[in-house]
## 1
Amino acid sequence: MKVFSKETYINRRKELKRKMGSGLLLFLGNEESSMNFKDNWYPFRQDSTFLYFFGLDMPGLAAVIDVDQDLDMVFGDDLTTVEIIWQGSHTALSDLAETVGVNKTKSKAELPTFLDSISGQRIHFLPPYRPENFQKLEAYLGKSPQEINSAVSVQFIKAVVSLRSIKSEEEILEITNAVNMSVKMHKRLMREAKPGMKEYELLGLVNYEAISAGGTVSFPPIITINGQILHNHNYSNTLTNGKMLLGDFGAESAMHYAGDITRTIPVSAKFSDSQRDIYQIVFSAYQTAVALIKPGVRFKEVHLAACRKLAERLKDLGIMKGNLDDAVQQGAHALFFQCGLGHMMGLDVHDMEDLGEQYVGYTDELLKSSQFGLKSLRLGKELEKGFVVTIEPGLYFIPQLIDLWEGEKRNSDYIDYKALSNFRDFGGIRVEDGFEITSTGAKVLGDPLEIEIGEVEALR
Amino acid sequence: MKVFSKETYINRRKELKRKMGSGLLLFLGNEESSMNFKDNWYPFRQDSTFLYFFGLDMPGLAAVIDVDQDLDMVFGDDLTTVEIIWQGSHTALSDLAETVGVNKTKSKAELPTFLDSISGQRIHFLPPYRPENFQKLEAYLGKSPQEINSAVSVQFIKAVVSLRSIKSEEEILEITNAVNMSVKMHKRLMREAKPGMKEYELLGLVNYEAISAGGTVSFPPIITINGQILHNHNYSNTLTNGKMLLGDFGAESAMHYAGDITRTIPVSAKFSDSQRDIYQIVFSAYQTAVALIKPGVRFKEVHLAACRKLAERLKDLGIMKGNLDDAVQQGAHALFFQCGLGHMMGLDVHDMEDLGEQYVGYTDELLKSSQFGLKSLRLGKELEKGFVVTIEPGLYFIPQLIDLWEGEKRNSDYIDYKALSNFRDFGGIRVEDGFEITSTGAKVLGDPLEIEIGEVEALR
C-alpha cells in the first residue's frame, strides 16, 4: 500500500473539518465484490473519498471524523490467528492508521454502537453506490432506503467536492504517472493493431500494459471499430481495412489515480479521404477547446465553442447549414456530438461521479441543461487552478439517431440530411487528452502521444 | 454471446423439472457491479446457474420455471430508443430467448407482480451471493434477511447440483478450451519469469494471454514467491534467485467455463536440492491421487491417500516420524498440507460453491469433517463419470502455524520440530491439473503442460 505523507492526510481532514464546522462525518470503505460465488472476487477497489482522506487501501474499513471533538477514527479488524495462517501476517491496523496520521482505531463491530451513542450531532454521510454500503447505512442508522436517499448530506458532498476538485502537486504527479501508463497502452495499440485482429486481442494488450506497470485499467476500455456506439463494451469484432479503430482507455496507478485518453486510428495504414476530413474537424475542435481552458472560464462555454467549431467545419463539408449561432443554440450539432466535451479526472476517471454531477460539475447558480447534448456535459462550471479535466470532442454518425431526427425533420434548418446520407455508416471519431488547469492556462498531462494525422499514420 | 444448441437448454430445464416434480423455480441473473462509482463497472459476470439453464449472458435478467405448468419464462427488457442511441441496436430479448428454447419473455417490471400472484405453489430459490440479489429476494418475496436465509430451497440446490455435476461432452470440450487457454498462460509465465521481475509483470502477462484469447481469468491469479501464503493476492514482490514462484491461475472461456492449473517453478534456472526434494514429494502425491481417481471412489479417500504419500516422503526426509496411519488420522500432515486435494470445476472454478459445499461435495451420509485440513476439503463424496475435478496437493511451510503447533507440542509424536526448523522459511509448493472422470478412470484435461522437474527446468 503506497500512501502520501502523514501530513497530507492530516491536512486534508483538517481542511474538511474547517469546511464542515460541526457534525460527525461517516466514511464507508468498500468491501470485496463477488463475481460468480461469494469468495471469487473482482480485484478490490477502495472508495475514492476514503482513499483521499484516509489512504488505507483494503476492504472492511470505515472511518469517522468527529468535527466537534477534532477526532479522527478508523474502524476495522486485524487478522485473526487463523487468518494469518491463510493470508500471512499483515501490518496491524493501528500501525497502518498511524501512517495516515490517525491515532485511534476501533474494531469494526464497535461502529454500530458508536453511531448509536451519538446524540445531538448530525451524522453526515455521502451517497452510497454499492448495495452493501447502502445496506450498512440502513442498518447503522436505522433508516429505510428512502430515508437513506433523502438524508445524504449535501453539505458533506460540497465540502468533499471543493477539496478533491483542486489537485495538489503530489496528486498532479500521480495523475501524470497514470497518464504516462495510459500513453504506453495507447502507443502499444497504435503500433500493433492490424487488419484481421480481434478487438479483444488489443484489449489483452492494453490490460497487459496497465497491469504489468503495477496498475490496472481505470475503467472498462472501449476498443471498437464502431466508434459511433458511445457505450460499447463489446470486443468481438474483427479489424478490417477501411474501418477506423476507436480506443478510449487509460490506466489506474497503484495509488488509484486515473488516466483517460482516446485516439482513433485507421485500421489500414492511412486514413481515407473522408476519415481525414472528419478527423481534422474533431481535431480542430480539440485545439479550439485546449486554447480556451484556463481559470475563470466556464467549461460549458468551452464546450459550446468546440461545438461551434464542429458546426463550422461540418458546414464546410455540406452536412450542416444555416445560421450556426442558432444551430448551436438549438443543439443541432448534437446529432453528431451527443455527449460532453470533458470531465474532471482524479481518483476517479469521472472524478467524484458518485457524489452527483450537479455538485461536481455545476453550482447553485449554474444548473445542468436538459437539452440533448448539453445534458450529457458532466462539467459546466468555471475552471479553477488545480482542476484536472479531459478534452474529448468527437463526431459520431449514429444511424438510429439520424433516422429519428430525419423522420421528425428535427433541426432541418441546420442539417442537410441528404448530404449526411453519405456519412450514415461512417462510424465515429474521438480524440481525448487530460489537462491540468494552471494559473494562466492549461498543460497537457503526461508524455506526448501522437494525435495529428501525420503522426498517427507514421506509427501505423 | 455464444450459446450451446437450443436443445441443450431445453433438455437441462426438462431434467430439472423432472427432478423437482412441482413448484415455481426462480433464477436471478446478475447485475453490473460498481467499482468506484455507479456506472464504472467491473467486467460483467453472469450467474453460472442462470447460464447453465438459460444461457443468456447479460445483466438485468431473471427467469422462472413453472414446473407444474411446464412453462419457462425470461424476464428482462429490450433497449429503449435512447439506449439504442448510446449502446447500438441489440437483438431483441425474445429472439435471444428463442436461441435457448424459451418462448415466453416478459418485462422485468412484471416479475414482482407475477411472483405476488403465485398462490399454492412453493417459490424455490437458490442462496444469493451478491447483495443486490439478496435485496431483490427480500423485495420480491416480502421477506426479512433472516427469512430469506432460511427459505432457500435445499431441494432446488440438490437438483441443480445433480445436473451441473455431470458434465456433458460439449461441456468437457468447453472446459478443455479453458484449460488450453490456461496452459498457454502458464507456458508464457514459465518461459518469461526472470530474476528482477515484479510479480505484477507476470500478472499482466497471464491476463494478456487470457483476454487476448477472448476470455478472462477464472479467478484472481495467485502469482507469488510466497507460495506458503495460501490466500495471496499481493503481487508487489520482486523475483529473486533462490526463490520459487508459485503460479495458480486459469482462464475463463468466452462461454464462462473455467480452467485452473498450478505450477511452482524455481526463479533460478534450476531447483535447489531442498526445492527438488519437496517438489518430488508433492509430485508423488499428485501421481498417487491421479492413479486413484475413478467412478465409485470417494474423493476423501483419494485426499487421504495423497496425505499418506506426503507423510511417507516427509518421514524419509526426517520431518515426520512415528506411525503414519495414526499421523494421517490425527491430521498431523495438515501442518504442511492445510487445504484440500481438489474441487469440482465447471462454470465456476470452484464449481457451484455458491450452492454450499455440503451439497456440492458431500452427501446426507457423508458430512464434511471438522478436523483441521479435512475441513478445507471441498469435495469428499464418491466420484462419478462426468465429474471434472482438480488434483492439487502441496506442501506449505507456514512459520506462524509451525510456531503455533510447536508451542502446543501438537502432534509431536509425528512431527520432528527440530528437523522441521531447517524448512521454516522454505515457502510452499503446489502442482495442480484438471481431470475428467471417465467410465474407467480419469483423463487429464487439455494440452500437456510441463510438470516434472526436468521438463520444468528445460523451459527456464
## 2
Amino acid sequence: MIIVMNQNATKEQIDSVEKKLLDLGFKTHPIVGDVKTIIGAIGDRRLLNTHSISTMPGVESLVPIMKPYKLAGKELKHDPTIVTVGDVRVGDNEVIVMAGPCAIENEEIYVETAKRVKAAGAKILRGGAFKPRTSPYAFQGLEEDGLKIMATAREVTGLKLVTEVVDTRDVDLVASYADIIQIGARNMQNFRLLKEVGMHKKPVLLKRGVSATIEEWLMAAEYIISEGNPDVILCERGIRTFETATRNTIDMSAIPVVKELSHLPIVLDPSHAAGTWKYVDPLAKGAIATGADGLIIEVHSQPDCALCDGQQSLIPSRFEQLMKELEPVALAVGRKL
Amino acid sequence: MIIVMNQNATKEQIDSVEKKLLDLGFKTHPIVGDVKTIIGAIGDRRLLNTHSISTMPGVESLVPIMKPYKLAGKELKHDPTIVTVGDVRVGDNEVIVMAGPCAIENEEIYVETAKRVKAAGAKILRGGAFKPRTSPYAFQGLEEDGLKIMATAREVTGLKLVTEVVDTRDVDLVASYADIIQIGARNMQNFRLLKEVGMHKKPVLLKRGVSATIEEWLMAAEYIISEGNPDVILCERGIRTFETATRNTIDMSAIPVVKELSHLPIVLDPSHAAGTWKYVDPLAKGAIATGADGLIIEVHSQPDCALCDGQQSLIPSRFEQLMKELEPVALAVGRKL
Amino acid sequence: MIIVMNQNATKEQIDSVEKKLLDLGFKTHPIVGDVKTIIGAIGDRRLLNTHSISTMPGVESLVPIMKPYKLAGKELKHDPTIVTVGDVRVGDNEVIVMAGPCAIENEEIYVETAKRVKAAGAKILRGGAFKPRTSPYAFQGLEEDGLKIMATAREVTGLKLVTEVVDTRDVDLVASYADIIQIGARNMQNFRLLKEVGMHKKPVLLKRGVSATIEEWLMAAEYIISEGNPDVILCERGIRTFETATRNTIDMSAIPVVKELSHLPIVLDPSHAAGTWKYVDPLAKGAIATGADGLIIEVHSQPDCALCDGQQSLIPSRFEQLMKELEPVALAVGRKL
Amino acid sequence: MIIVMNQNATKEQIDSVEKKLLDLGFKTHPIVGDVKTIIGAIGDRRLLNTHSISTMPGVESLVPIMKPYKLAGKELKHDPTIVTVGDVRVGDNEVIVMAGPCAIENEEIYVETAKRVKAAGAKILRGGAFKPRTSPYAFQGLEEDGLKIMATAREVTGLKLVTEVVDTRDVDLVASYADIIQIGARNMQNFRLLKEVGMHKKPVLLKRGVSATIEEWLMAAEYIISEGNPDVILCERGIRTFETATRNTIDMSAIPVVKELSHLPIVLDPSHAAGTWKYVDPLAKGAIATGADGLIIEVHSQPDCALCDGQQSLIPSRFEQLMKELEPVALAVGRKL
C-alpha cells in the first residue's frame, strides 16, 4: 500500500500517518519527493479495510499494490483449477459446451431440446426454474416444478444440470437438483447468496455483473471460496456500455485477463451478451479462439414460443451446425471440443 | 408497440406477424413504406412479454411506445406521492435530510452522532446493521445488535430510522426496527427482496443500481408497488461511468427525469456518489437547487475510525455548517428545509 | 512515479530497472515487500513519456504520483484564473450567462434573439457558424456569412461573441470575429486545433469531450496554455454513459473536482447535456448551486424552425423567466448574477 | 419515422404535426392508441434533419425506422466492398495483417522491423509520422521525415503503407506517401478531416472513436464515401468502458454487427485495445475466428526504447510465432492468411 500525502501536508501530519501505520503492524518507508511525500506500507492490506488512513489530515490518496483477493488469485495457487462435474472437467483441455433453453416451460419441449443438444455434443444442460426478470409482469419461472423437469431431462439424457438460484431461501432446494448452481449477473454482489452457495459442495457458475469490474468479479468468487467451496466457474456474459447495437458488449478480453489474474476457469455466454441469435455463431467461435474454457448457449426448439429471451435462442439445427463448426476452431488453438 | 419488418420481409411473413398480433388481442395498423413495412399494434404491452414476436421470420425489431411500468409512472397517478414516516413527509414542500454513519459500530459513538445530526436539523437517522461489502474480509455489520443500537438512538433523539436489508430472510427483523427499509444499489434488481419489502407496510428507500437505467429503476419500484406497498422513495447515488475522479458519477439529471416520468419522491446521496467528503457540500446544494426532495448524508463523529466509508463522512461540525448553508438554497427554489 | 515489479521479478530485473531510472536522472527508493518489490522514482514524470520502463522484464505496472499537467493544475498557480473578455470576467464572483441559438440561420432571427437574451441579462452571445454534425446531410453552418451576422448582433447589442472553430485552416478567420473561440466536444483531442488556438490571444471555451476524463480535459487545456494562451474556460456539457433518458449525462461533480485540481473557471452547458429544453431549468439552477462560474444556454426565438438542436432550445420568454429564478440561487451560494 | 404524441396531446396538436409532415412531403399514417396517438411518416428521413418536428407542442418523441446512413449501409449495396491496395485485397477471403511500430523513430530500426514483419507474412506496414498524443510534452512524430522513412521501407520491402493524418492541412502531403490514409480514433468525428480524405482517391482506414456507437462510426464512413471515396476500411480498436484491466474494451461483437449493417470491410487492432502485448495473441486469434477481415498489430524491434506505446508492441519473434498460430485459426473459419 502506498499512502500519497498531499502537497501541503505538514511534517506532523506525515509523522502521524506513519505512526498509525506502525501501530497497525505495517512496516513503513517514507519517500520525500520534490513536491509530495509518499509512504510505502508493507503488511496485510486486509488490516486496512477496518481502519481509515485515508481520512487522516494531509492524506491525498491510497494506492493499493497487492490484489484484494487471495483465494481467487494466483498468489497462493498457480495451477489452473479444474472443476469436475461427474465426468465433465471444466478448465481442462476440452472446451465444454453448456446448452438449453433460458427458462423451462414444459416437460415435453424441454426434454426434446435436451436430447437435441446432447446429440450435438453439449455436456451440460441449462435451464431456468427461478428467473430474475426486469418486469414483475413477466414470466418468473416454474420454480420447483421446473427443477423436476430438469431432473427428468437429466435422467433421459445423462447431461449434467446448471440452473440459477435467486434467493438465499432456495439454495438448499436448488442444490438438491442442480449439478452446478448458477449465480446470475444481477446477483453477483448479493453477498449473502454468495456465502450461502459457498457453504454447499456444488460447483458454482458465477456470472459477471453487468457493470462489475474483473476485480469485483474475482472478489465475488473470493466470497464463495472463502466459505469453503473452491469450485467456481466464471462466466462472462457481456457488460453494459453506451453501445446499443447489441444487448450488452461482450468483453472478450476478460478471457486473457482472467487467465492472467486467476486460476479459475472461464466460460462465455454469447447468447445473453448479444441478445440476438444472429451473433451467437461468430462470438462462440471468437470465444474459443480467444481461450475460453467453455460456452453457455441458449437453444430452444420453439424460440418463437419461448416465455423469455426467445430472440437470442438458436434452434437445434443451427446449434448442431455451430457445434460442427466450433470443432476446427478448438483444434486450431490446441484444444478439443 | 411498433413491429419493424426487415427490408426483405415477404408478404407472407408480414401477414403472419399481423395474424399473430390479432390472435393475441391486439389491433393492428400496417404501414407500407418505400423500403420497409411496419406494423402498429395497439393493446397491452404486458401480453407481449410472454410471446415472442421478435423471433418471427422477417421481423427486424420491436419499438415499444408505452412505458413498461404502470404503477410507478404518471399514466395512472398524476399527483406526487408523499411518503409519510410519522410526522415526516418525504415528497412535500420541505426538503428532508437523512444523516448518520454508514455502519453502526458502537452505541456511544452512534448515539452521539445521532444527537448532533438531530440538533443540526436532520429528520431521519441512517445507519447500517447489515452491510454489503465488496470484500469478504471487510466489516459486515453488527446485524441485530446494530438494529438495537439504532432503536436506542431513536428513543433518545426522536429521529426516524432508515436502514438496509440485504437478505430476504431478514426482512421481518429489519422491518420490526426500521421506519424506512433501505434497498441498496447492489440489490436493486434482487427481485425476491423487492417483493418481500413490497409485502410489508414500511416505506422503502430504493437506491438506484450503479448501472441501472432510470427505466429499470422505476421497474424495480414497480415490483414493490405491485405487491401492495406504494411508499417508495427513490434515491440517486451515482452511476458507474468511465470517470475515476469521483467514486461514481452523480446523475443529477435523474432528478428532473424522475419528476417527469414518475410521481414518486426522489432524494440524493452525495456521499456515496462522490466517495469523498470534500464534494458533499457542493453536490448537496446542487441537488436541492435541481429539485431533490431530500438528501441522505454520511456523518460520523470519528470518521478516521469508521469501519467503512470513513472517507466520505462529514464530521458533525461540517454537517452543521452545511445544514445552515442549505437553507437559503432551498428557499431560493421555493422550498423549506 | 512508483514502479511495481511483479511477484516473480528477479534481483537482476529489479537492479536493471533501478539502473535505468538512475540513468534517466531519477532518484530511486526500492521497497522490498513480502511478496512484491516496488521502486519509488523521484524526478520529472515528463522524462518518462519518452522512455519505456513499463516494458522492461519483471515490471508489472507504473503508478504515477504527480499529475501529468503542470500549467492547468494548481501546483504552480494557486489563485483562480479570471478570464476577462472586455468588461466581462469569467471566474470571478459574478456568474456569467452565455446564451443564443445553436446555429446561425438568418440575420433577422439571430439579432432578435440576441436582443432578447441581452435584455434578460446574458453577457455573452453564442452562435455556430461552423457546425460539426454527425450526418453529412445535416446543415453544416453558414461559415463566414454566419460570423458576419454575429458581428452585426454584437454591434447592435454590445454582447461579446463565443463561436466554434472546427478546422485549423479557419482559426485566423474565426479569431478575427470571435471574442471567445469555442473548441467543441468532438475536437477536444484535436491536438493540432488546440495548438492553433493556443497561439492566438483570444480566450478559449474548451468543451469536455463526451468520453473524456477530467484528467484528459485538463491535458487538453495544457496544450492550449503551453502554447502561450492562459485564458481557458472549461465547459462541462455531459458525458456519454449507458443512460438514454437524457442525451448525455451531465457530470455535475466535475465542478468541484475541477475547482480542486485546477485554477481555471468552469461553466456548464445544460442544453447539450440534457438534449431537451424541459430539463434546462433545473440543471441550470443545480449548476449554480454546485459552484459553476457560468452557464451556456441555447435560446432560439423559433425553436421549431431551428436548423439544428431546436429541441434543446428555450424560447426567449422561458429564458427570461429562468434568469429571474437563477438570481436567488446565485445569491444563496454567495455569488451574484 | 414514427412521431409519438404525448398522452395529453390535443386533436389540434396532432393535426398540426400531421399537416407539417405533409407540407414536408411525407405521407402520414396516424394510429390512435388507447392512451397515445402515433403518426407514421413515410419519406426521406434526411429532410427531417433540417426541420424540427420534435419541438412542436404535444410531441413526445421521434422514433427513426430507417438507418441514417445510405452509402455505408446495405440498403443500396449488398455485395461486400473489397478495398484493393495494389495487389492486396482487404475484405476478400484472405485475412490481411498490417503490422509495424506505433511511431517512426529512426530509419534503421524502422526498416529492420519492416523486413521482419514482411518475412512473417504481413502485407501492409504501419507507422505514425504524425502522432496525436494526450500530453503536449510527449513525442509528436517526425512528420514528413517520418513519411520519407516509410517510403524507404516500402522500397526495401514492397509492403504497402498505412499512416495517420491528423490535420486537414497535411492531407495532401500524407496522401502523397501513404497507400492507405488512417483516421485515428480521436479524429473519427473531425468532420472536416473526413471530407478532406473523402476527396482523395486513397483508401482510408477509419478507426472507431473510443466512445462512438457503431451507427456514428458508419456515419463517419458516410462522410468519406459521400465525398466520392468508396474505399473505407473500418477498424475496431476498443471502446471506453468502466473496466480498467485493459486500456480499452475491445468490442468483438462489432465485427458481426458491421457485417450485418454494412458492406465495408472491418479489421481489428488488438494492440491499442488491450494496451499490453500480453493480450494481443489471444485477441488476434479471437478476432479472426469472429470474422475480422484483417488485423493491425504493433510490432517493434526494441519496444523498451519505443517513444510511444512500447508496452503494447510485440517483438518481431513473438509476431512471427503469432502469424504461424493465426493461420490454422483462419483456415478453421474458411479463410486463408
## 3
Amino acid sequence: MTNPTAAILIIGNEILSGRTQDVNVQFIAQRLAELGIKLEEVRVVPDIPGRIIGAVNELRAAYTCLFTTGGIGPTHDDITSECIAAAFGVPWVLHEETAEVMRAAWGERVNAARLRMATMPQGAVPIKNEASIAPGFTIGNVHVMAGVPRIMQAMFKALEPELPRGERIEMRAVYGIGVLEGSIADGLGAIQDRFPQVDLGSYPFKRDNKWGVALVGKGTDVAAIEAAIAEASALIAAQGVVPVPGEPG
Amino acid sequence: MTNPTAAILIIGNEILSGRTQDVNVQFIAQRLAELGIKLEEVRVVPDIPGRIIGAVNELRAAYTCLFTTGGIGPTHDDITSECIAAAFGVPWVLHEETAEVMRAAWGERVNAARLRMATMPQGAVPIKNEASIAPGFTIGNVHVMAGVPRIMQAMFKALEPELPRGERIEMRAVYGIGVLEGSIADGLGAIQDRFPQVDLGSYPFKRDNKWGVALVGKGTDVAAIEAAIAEASALIAAQGVVPVPGEPG
C-alpha cells in the first residue's frame, strides 16, 4: 500500500521575520505519521498574494493533501482565504451558515471585518472547531487552518476523520552517548543497505557537554525497523558504549 | 536601497517526521533581519537527491542568497554536499586543506566516512567554525551549514562578515490584552493604508486564558514604524485597554 502524501504551507510573515517560533509543523507532522500520511514538504511564504497562490497551486498538485496555516483572521494582513479562492479560480463568497453561527455567538459585534472570517471560496466546507467560532475550511485537497497553535490543533482534530489514511509510519530509535557518527558511518550504511524498506537516519547531538548520536529507523514495516535498530544497537555496543533504546515514535 | 533577499532550505527527514523541532529558522531569520537581508522563503525537503537539487536550483536563482541546513555529516543519509555539486554541475572533490585540518585534529580516526566531510563541490570555500572540525561551505550564493543548532550557529557567525548587507529591518510591537482582532481590524487596515512602507501585522494570542493581540510594525523606516505603532497603540486605548509596548525587535 502506498501512503498518501502531504505538504504544509505556512503563510506567515511572523515566521520569516524571526518574531515567532513555528510549532505547528511538528504537531501536524506527528499527527500525519499516526494517520499514515507522508509529509513530504513544508514551505513558508510571506503574506503576498502571488506567492501564496503560486505555492498553493504547486503543492496541491504535487501531494495528496495540502495543509495551510495562518492568515485567516479578520485583519488586513489575513489574505489566505481570498488567495485560496484565486488559486482555485472560484468566487470568494459569504458562507451563510457560518455567518449565522457568528451572529448567534457574537450578536452586534459581527462587523464587516469579522464577516471576512465567514467568507470562503465557493464550494468550501467549514472546519468547525472547539477553540474558536470562526472556522477553517476545506476545498478540494486543501485544508485551510489558523496559525494560532491552539486553534490550529482544534481544527486539525476536527478534520482528522475526513483525512485519507495509510499504513501508520512507525519510528524506533537508539542512542549512543559518546559515540561519534564518523566512527559508525560505514557500519550504519551497511545496515541501511540490508534494510532498504527502513528509512535509517543518524542525528548527532550534544548533551552534558558530550557528543552522542541518535540512530532512528522509520517506515511502515515494524519488524524490519526493529531488526535494523537491533543491528544499530550492536554497532553502538561494538564502540564500547551501552546503547540506550529510544521511545517508540 | 533595496534589501538583499534570502531563502532557507532545510534538508531534514527528521523535521518532516516530527521527530525534531526546528529552531534554526528563527535563529537565521533574526540574524538576517539585523543584517538587513529579507528572508522571503523557507522550504523543508526530504533527504532525496532530486528534491534537494531541484529546490537548491530554484531558490538560488530566486533570491540573493540561499542558506541550507542539514545533511553534511559523515553518514549515508548526509547527501547535501553531493547534491549541491550536482545542482551546480561541478565535480564533488576532496578539499585538501580541509582534509589536512582533519588529519591534524583526528589523526588515525580520519576514515573514509569522515573524509566525506572534507569533500565539497569544486570551487567551494569552507565555512570554518568554532564548534566543529568539519566545515560548512559556500559556493556561489549558496551557504551550506550543519543541521545541529550549535554548529549551524557557529557557522553562521563565521559566515556573517561575508554576507551582503542592507538597511537593518526593524520591528516594533504593541500588545492589547483583552482586545479582539475583529474589533480593531478596520482601524488597523486604515493605519496600514497610511503607512504603506511599514509591514503591519496583527497576531492574536491567548495568555492567562484571555485573548489578546500583538500589533507589529516592520520595515527599514524606523520613524514610520514608530508612528504607525503609536497609532496602533491609540487604537488599543480606544478599546478601553492600556496598550503594552513591545520590545524593540
## 4
Amino acid sequence: MGRDDPRISGEDRLIAEYFRPIALAPGAMDLRDDAAFFTPPDGHDLVLTKDALVAGVHFFPDDPPRMIAQKALRVNLSDLAAKGAVPAGFLLALALPKPVDTAWLAAFSAGLQADAEEFACPLLGGDTVTTAGPITISITALGTLPRGTMVHREGAQAGDHIFVSGTIGDAALGLRLPRGGAAATQWGIDLAAADYLVGRYLVPHPRVGLTKAIRDYASSAMDVSDGLAGDLAKLCLASGVSADVDVTRIPLSTAAAAAVENNPDTLVTALTGGDDYEIVCTVAEDRRAAFIAAAQAASVDVVEIGRIVVGDAPPRFTRDGKVFDTGAGSFSHF
Amino acid sequence: MGRDDPRISGEDRLIAEYFRPIALAPGAMDLRDDAAFFTPPDGHDLVLTKDALVAGVHFFPDDPPRMIAQKALRVNLSDLAAKGAVPAGFLLALALPKPVDTAWLAAFSAGLQADAEEFACPLLGGDTVTTAGPITISITALGTLPRGTMVHREGAQAGDHIFVSGTIGDAALGLRLPRGGAAATQWGIDLAAADYLVGRYLVPHPRVGLTKAIRDYASSAMDVSDGLAGDLAKLCLASGVSADVDVTRIPLSTAAAAAVENNPDTLVTALTGGDDYEIVCTVAEDRRAAFIAAAQAASVDVVEIGRIVVGDAPPRFTRDGKVFDTGAGSFSHF
C-alpha cells in the first residue's frame, strides 16, 4: 500500500494528507469510512449549525487560506456559543477548483487543525469535490447542552437588559477601510489600528467563553453576524418585543472609536455592517448581576446597551436623546 | 409584518417560502433561529454524513431541479442505510447564482419536501448564499442507531459472503447512454430501457429498507457510490482482506443486461462507473440465511456475488473461470 496503490485514489490521498490529522475524534474513524458516528451524552441535546462561505462573497480569494479556514469554523462556533452549546465536532464540505492548489490546501488545513485543537472541536467527516467555480466551504458544527436548555432568539421580555459581548463594528470597518496610506489620511487612524480592524474581519473570535453564562442567565440570545441593528431587530421580531438602545453605550474598540470620531458616517457602518461574531443577549432584571459576574469570571467583556420594551416596532436607537437612524439595517444575500 | 417589513430580508423571505414547509422537526424551530436542536434517544449514537454536489460535476445544470434535490438528499440516506442508521434529519447549504431562479428553487424545494416526507427525514437547518459559480449543494444528514452498532467498512473476514442490493451499473450506463435514437441503434436497447437507465442516474433509490438487516447481520458494509469494483476494493483494504467475485452473479437490470449483451465493453462501465447507491456488504456464514430472510422481509433484493478471502490483493473478478479486468477501478475527483 502507499502512494502508488491503485486502490487509494487521489481524493483519498488528499484526505489522508490534509484532513486526517484533524480528525481526532474516535467517531471520525480516521476518515476511512462513509460516515462518522458521535455518541451524545445521555440527557443532552445536540445543537446543529451550518454555514456556507463562497470565495468572492464571504472572503476574498487572496485572503490567507489559514484565516479562511478559521473563519469558516469560527462562524459556526459563534452560533453554538450564542445558543449555549459546547462544541463537539464538525463536518466539512470543500469544493475546490482543479488543479488543486496544494499550498493553499496545506495552509487551509493547518488553520482548521489549529482551531479544532483550540476549541476542542475535531473534524468528524465531510466531502471534498471539484468545482468549475469559486472555492466553496460548508461547515456543519455540532454542540451539546443539557436537554432543553438551548437559548433561543425568542424569549426576550419587556424590561430585560440587552447586552453585547466584545466590541461592535470592527470587522465592518476593517472590510471597508481605505487601503494603504488612505486609512491614515482619510480615516485618521494609524497602521496598527487599521491592521486591528482588518484582522477582526479576517478572523472572528467566537465568544465561546460566554456559553455557560448565556445558558444560565439569558432569556434570549443570538450571534451578531449581519450587523447589530438588523440582528437585534430579528431577535425582537422573534420575541414579539421592541428595544431601546443607547448608541453611546455600544462598545467600540479604540481603533473603531478613532475611525468614527474622524468619520461620523462610519458609525452606521459599524452598527449595520456585519461580521462581528459577537453575542447579543437579553437578561431579566433579577439575573443581571449574576450574568455580569459570570461573564467577568469567564473573562469575556459584556456591556449593557439598552432595554427590551413592549411593542412591535423595530428597535429604536437613540444618541443623546435623539433618534439615531441605522438605515435599512441588516446584510442580506438576496 | 409581512413582505414589506424591513426586518425581514430577502434571504429570510426565500427561506420562509421555499424551506420552512420542509422544516417540520420541532428542533428546526421553523428555521427562525441561528441553529437547530436535536434530542437523540438515550443509549443511541448519531451517524453523520455529508456530501457535496456541484452543477457540472455531480449533475447537469439542466437536470430537473426536483431530481437534483432528491439525489442530493438520497446519496446521504444511502450512506446512512449502509451504516445501519435510521434517518433523523438533515441540514442544507445551498449556494445559488444571482438572480435567484425562483422556478428552479420552487421545484428543488418541492423535491426535497417529497423526500423529507417519504424518508421521514425533516430539514433541521442550513444556510443559503450566493455564488458567482455553479449551483453547489451540501447536505449533512443525521441518523441514529443503538450505541456502538454502526456497521463499518472494516470488519469483513475471510469466508464471509459478499452481497449487493438491487442492480449494479444502471446509473453509469444511464450517464453514458448515447442520446436520442442512438441508444437503440448503437446499444440496441429500446426507449423504455434507456429511460430506465437515465432515471437511475438522476434519482437513486437508497436502500433504507435494508438498514436493520445490515445492522443485525453484516460484518461490514458501504454504499456503492464510486463503482462496485473500486468500492469493494476500499472495503477490502479497510478490512485487511481480499475478495473473489463472480462477475456472472453481479445483478444487472434487464435494461443494463441488454446494453451489455449488445456492447460487451459496457460491462466494465457498469462495474466501475459509480452512482449506483446500492449497498455492498459482507455476512458471516452463520448469519447468511438470517440476512437473506431479513432482506426478503424488507422487500429489498440482495444477491450474493462472491466471498471474502485472505490476502491484501485487490478483489479478483472472474467470469467463467477467467480473470475479468475491471481496470483502474474507482471514480475519484482528484
